[in-house]
Design a protein that fits this description.
heterodimer; A: six-stranded mixed beta sheet; globular; B: mainly beta; four-stranded antiparallel beta sheet
Chain lengths: 111, 113
């Protein structure tokens, strides 16, 4: 089955810096890769996703890149703000299977 | 549309007991997945139900089971509780055939003493 590795497990940045979180997946048939943000005590919420027919997607300060050949995808957050502090999860999916998550990255943005 | 709801939100049980958790998906969503969240382990997939049938299953012991009703509401049951079962249990719903986006409920926090 699919296996998703996520790095780093913790990430501390200064406000205004960029943050990058990287994930690798094992099943080349996976074709949908969402990213979720979970604030303390809250449910995970989708922040951005990418499908395998696209190499990059951007939404304001966040972007995701996908390298199908290498089977890895990354989340980029620019101009980080304290409210970006949360746990971020990547995931991989293909039709007929389950959405499998990485173990999460705790991002801390200090002002 | 109302979001995914879960009941109860908090639960305290003792070892050896059993527990049933409930999840109501977003209206029109026929797929419900369950995840166990513990510190350091992320979101571990338990199982997925679609049209009252278990479609996918994660690597959890048989003590963990679930079912789905005709209205798409789902329940999961854990029998013979162990201390290690203490976790946040999240359910998520999606609409297969629509987007793949999965929407999470608020979770049920289970503490096993």
């Amino acid at each position: 089955g699919e296996n998703v590795e996520q790095h780093p497990s913790t990430l501390s940045v200064q406000e205004g810096d960029s943050a990058v979180i990287k994930c690798t997946y094992s099943d080349s048939a996976s074709n949908y890769f969402p990213w979720y943000k979970q604030e303390l005590g809250k449910r995970p919420q989708l922040i951005i996703d990418i499908r395998s027919n696209v190499g990059e997607k951007k939404d304001q300060r966040i972007a995701v890149t996908l390298n199908k050949t290498a089977k890895h995808f990354s989340l980029h957050i620019t101009e980080t703000q304290p409210e970006d502090s949360a746990v971020y999860f990547c995931a991989a999916f293909q039709a007929g299977t389950a959405l499998i998550f990485g173990k999460g990255t705790t991002l801390s943005v200090s002002s | 549309k109302a979001g995914v709801t879960q009941t109860p939100r908090y639960l305290i049980k003792t070892r050896g007991q059993q527990v049933t958790l409930s999840c109501s998906p977003i209206s029109g969503h026929r797929s419900v997945s369950w995840y166990q969240q513990t510190p350091g382990q992320g979101l571990q997939f338990l199982f997925e139900y679609f049209s009252e049938t278990q479609r996918n299953k994660g690597n959890f012991p048989g003590r963990f089971s679930g079912r789905q009703f005709s209205n798409s509401r789902s329940e999961m049951n854990v029998s013979t509780l162990e201390l290690g079962d203490s976790a946040l249990y999240l359910c998520a719903s999606r609409n297969p055939g629509g987007t793949e986006t999965q929407y999470f409920g608020p979770g049920t926090r289970l503490l096993v003493l």
